[in-house]
């Protein structure tokens, strides 16, 4: 908070004199010393407008000295000060100032929060110059108690003028006696026995009961159970503590009052909280008690800790031999929060974890055995986010039938026994960490790869037998294609796409920025229909495609290709292209993406980033897209200017920009055409396969293809 929020600097007096204390102004002066201020002493505030006044860490109130120009003994008799003193001392919330200690200067922590674990000096108190009003604020975010009070005009105590906001929470001290808890009755002991919880476990965990409601309320409950019992004749069963109405009615028969199970929460042998559960499965806890984990003392100094979702599951774990188990006190959230984990003082929903954080310091393995439903899975994720995924494990509940699984530990104990529950814990798996995997997570895929049931284990044939031993198209890979201008790179890729569509029905997204749409459509139609789009020159007997063939070809174009084009004047970025390609994959099911060429993209980068670094990041994005969407990407990149070129095929290292083009690609291909009749046929296209990462689907080598534009 700055001075402009509290005390504007133009209103501050530059010097203090006795007249300021008789003035009715509402200027505030921090209480810093019990000594009178000299008349000529300069007055100033810190830039935030506050001075911090400490308060005691002990329970007995200590004095707050007031600053004034009169004698301390005389000031204590001023009616306004006496009234203000009484207000500040009201209910023991603030420090009192008294006549016998006005001369002393005391520094203390806030008595309501004691300054937290560090004993922070956190309470600021402000008293007006005329002594008529005071305000206070505890700067600890976890406390934040603030308020305002003023003296009545006649100097009498006026509690109605006391304002308290965000009153510091006082933790109650509770005992078994103060809560009027009782040992479990035979009926409740029998209820636990039906759920496979022994009397020894109940006694060790101090499970008790509490009378809940009077005889009239108890009678109403019996009437309700009687009604539900009658309904069961029609197949209706009520959900009362997991019992049918008949079982619940029989359990309560003969009891003179309504009772609730009391789960007592202990910390180092001291009762901290108590949670109740009645026969209607209502839960409630004692007010103004500290939230901690249930069974906390059982995990002190434990290296392995099990966390479950309910007290019954904690007891079930003990029956299976696991005492190193705790339960959360407040159940599970409906879903995982999309926000970041808040700071400790703001993480109110999971404050019980922060209150017990020292118990997890020595734990190397935390097994999350929450319920198997969606809220239980959400709770496991929220716990893992706070405790650290690297040391968390998770359980898999066994199957109940072909469709359903058992929900929690108590269900497994009841239906399968303690040995099955032991197996669940013994077979716990590492909690998944995004980006960190084990081979076991991919065994199914490896088996499919071995048995060749994935579909494209050895890639897809290009349609040219001469290339089958060198290059095959595998989903999720990146192929870099280069070659000198007019060598036929784009023509070869278009022909390859037509072959793939004809052979396996693949669809494609085309980001071909050097071609007009109509020209690109003509080239693709000619390769698919194998007839010229226009009539050829004089003397040729090649027939032009008919209108019917054109219409059929147009439908083929629409079904097979999606166009990615930037229609405005700006250059498209690689991120923009990949976002549209992702939409094409999800909406149209394309299996291939062509980006042609590299130099038509926008390559703006920070001044501090080199072109090599930029190309590396760009290729990483493309490969990640290909792998995540199982989409093969062909990326056309021109070579740099070749000095003293003698007509030989360029190398992949000749690509303009960076050696990363060959380093990061899965396949590298150079398309080359001979232009010297004396060196060989000029109608052959040399496909130079210069890199194949996956040796199962190809090898390095050259293949020669004959090019005939109108081959029928």
From TrEMBL:
Domain SF4 helicase: 453-712
GO biological process: DNA replication
Biased composition (Low complexity): 7-39
Region: Disordered, residue numbers: 1-40
GO function term, MF aspect, one: 5'-3' DNA helicase activity
Entry-linked InterPro entries: DNA_helicase_DnaB-like_C, P-loop_NTPase, TOPRIM_DnaG/twinkle, TOPRIM_dom, Twinkle-like
UniProt xrefs under PANTHER family: T7-LIKE MITOCHONDRIAL DNA HELICASE (PTHR12873), TWINKLE MTDNA HELICASE (PTHR12873:SF0)
Protein name per Swiss-Prot or TrEMBL: Twinkle-like protein, chloroplastic/mitochondrial-like isoform X1
Organism for this UniProt entry: Gossypium australe
């Amino acid at each position: 908070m700055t001075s402009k929020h509290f005390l504007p600097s133009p209103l501050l007096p530059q010097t203090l004199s006795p007249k300021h204390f008789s003035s009715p102004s509402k200027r505030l002066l921090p209480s810093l010393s019990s000594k009178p201020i000299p008349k000529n002493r300069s007055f100033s505030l810190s830039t935030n407008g506050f001075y911090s006044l400490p308060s005691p860490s002990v329970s007995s109130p200590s004095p707050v000295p007031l600053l004034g120009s009169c004698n301390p003994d005389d000031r204590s008799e001023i009616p306004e000060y006496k009234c203000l003193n009484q207000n500040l001392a009201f209910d023991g919330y603030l420090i009192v100032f008294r006549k016998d200690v006005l001369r002393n200067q005391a520094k203390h922590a806030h008595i309501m929060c004691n300054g937290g674990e560090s004993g922070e000096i956190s309470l600021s108190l402000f008293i007006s110059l005329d002594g008529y009003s005071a305000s206070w604020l505890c700067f600890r975010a976890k406390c934040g108690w603030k308020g305002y009070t003023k003296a009545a005009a006649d100097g009498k105590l006026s509690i109605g003028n006391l304002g308290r906001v965000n009153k510091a929470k006082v933790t109650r001290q509770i005992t078994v006696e103060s809560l009027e808890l009782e040992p479990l009755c035979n009926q409740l002991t029998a209820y636990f026995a039906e759920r496979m919880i022994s009397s020894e476990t109940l006694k060790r965990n101090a499970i008790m009961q509490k009378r809940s409601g009077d005889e009239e309320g108890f009678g109403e409950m019996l009437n309700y159970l009687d009604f539900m019992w009658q309904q069961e004749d029609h197949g209706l069963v009520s959900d009362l503590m997991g019992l049918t109405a008949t079982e619940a009615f029989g359990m309560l028969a003969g009891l003179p009052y309504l009772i609730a199970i009391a789960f007592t929460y202990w910390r180092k042998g001291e009762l901290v909280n108590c949670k109740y559960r009645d026969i209607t499965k209502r839960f409630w806890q004692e007010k103004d008690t500290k939230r901690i984990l249930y069974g906390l003392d059982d995990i002190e100094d434990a290296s392995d800790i099990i966390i479950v979702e309910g007290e019954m599951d904690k007891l079930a774990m003990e029956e299976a031999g696991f005492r190193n188990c705790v339960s959360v006190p407040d159940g599970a959230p409906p879903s995982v929060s999309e926000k970041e984990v808040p700071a400790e003082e703001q993480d109110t929903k999971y404050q019980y974890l922060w209150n017990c954080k020292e118990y997890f310091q020595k734990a190397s393995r935390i097994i999350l055995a929450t319920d198997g439903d969606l809220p239980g899975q959400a709770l496991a994720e929220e716990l893992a986010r706070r405790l650290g995924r690297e040391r968390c494990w998770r359980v898999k509940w066994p199957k109940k039938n072909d469709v359903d699984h058992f929900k929690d530990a108590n269900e497994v104990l009841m239906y399968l026994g303690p040995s099955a529950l032991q197996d669940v814990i013994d077979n716990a798996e590492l909690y998944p960490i995004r980006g960190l995997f084990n081979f076991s997570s991919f065994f199914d895929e490896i088996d499919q790869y071995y048995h060749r049931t994935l579909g494209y284990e050895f890639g897809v044939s290009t349609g040219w037998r001469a290339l089958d031993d060198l290059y095959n198209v595998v989903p999720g890979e990146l192929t870099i294609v280069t070659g000198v201008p007019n060598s036929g790179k784009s023509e070869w890729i278009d022909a390859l796409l037509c072959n793939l569509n004809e052979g396996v029905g693949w669809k494609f997204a085309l980001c071909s920025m050097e071609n007009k749409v109509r020209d690109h459509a003509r080239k693709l139609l000619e390769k698919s229909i194998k007839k010229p789009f226009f009539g050829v020159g004089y003397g040729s007997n090649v027939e032009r495609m008919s209108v019917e063939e054109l219409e059929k070809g147009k439908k083929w174009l629409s079904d097979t290709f999606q166009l990615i084009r930037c229609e405005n004047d700006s250059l498209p970025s690689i991120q923009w292209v990949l976002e549209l390609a992702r939409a094409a994959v999800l909406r149209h099911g394309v299996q291939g993406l062509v980006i042609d060429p590299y130099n038509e993209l926008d390559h703006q980068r920070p001044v501090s980033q080199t072109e090599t670094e930029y190309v590396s990041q760009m290729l990483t994005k493309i490969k990640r897209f290909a792998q995540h969407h199982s989409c093969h990407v062909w990326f056309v990149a021109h070579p740099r200017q070749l000095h003293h070129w003698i007509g030989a095929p360029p190398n992949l290292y000749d690509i303009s920009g960076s050696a990363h083009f060959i380093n990061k690609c899965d396949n590298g291909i150079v398309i080359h055409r001979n232009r010297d009749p004396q060196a060989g046929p000029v109608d052959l296209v040399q496909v130079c396969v210069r890199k194949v990462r996956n040796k199962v689907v190809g090898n390095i080598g050259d293949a020669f293809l004959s090019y005939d534009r109108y081959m029928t």
